[in-house]
């Protein structure tokens, strides 16, 4: 191994750790909303419309006002 490979491996490892955290959070929120990961991803990517119940659940989950997530 050379130093460049070591550095690349460290960087990739850090990115993997961050992505794992994001994945865990997404799974947690999907579970909270009572939806599967595919549905959650559609919400996140704007491919599925939010109904009022989901918006209320998100407001409660994040402890924010509706205007904070809609505007």
- Overall pLDDT metric: 89
Helical run tally: 4
Number of strands: 0
Determine the fraction of residues in helical runs and give it as a percent range: over 70%
Major sheet, described briefly?
A: none
What class would the helix/strand composition place it in? mainly alpha
In sequence order, what are the helices and strands, one letter per element? HHHH
Compact overview of the structure:
With 71 residues, this protein is an all-alpha fold.
Notes on the protein architecture:
There is one protein chain. With 71 residues, the protein is mainly α. It has four helices and no strands. The longest helix is centred in the N-terminal third of the chain and has 31 residues, at 3-33. The chain starts with a helix and ends with a helix. The model has no long low-confidence stretch (mean pLDDT 89).
Which SSEs are present, and which pair or pack?
Elements: H1 3-33, H2 37-44, H3 52-62, H4 66-70
């Amino acid at each position: 191994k050379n130093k460049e490979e070591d550095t690349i491996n460290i960087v990739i490892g850090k990115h993997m750790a961050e992505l794992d955290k994001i994945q865990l959070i997404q799974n947690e929120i999907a579970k909270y909303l009572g939806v599967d990961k595919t549905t959650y991803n559609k919400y996140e990517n704007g491919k599925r419309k939010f109904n009022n119940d989901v918006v209320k659940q998100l407001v409660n989950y994040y402890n924010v006002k509706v205007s904070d997530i809609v505007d």
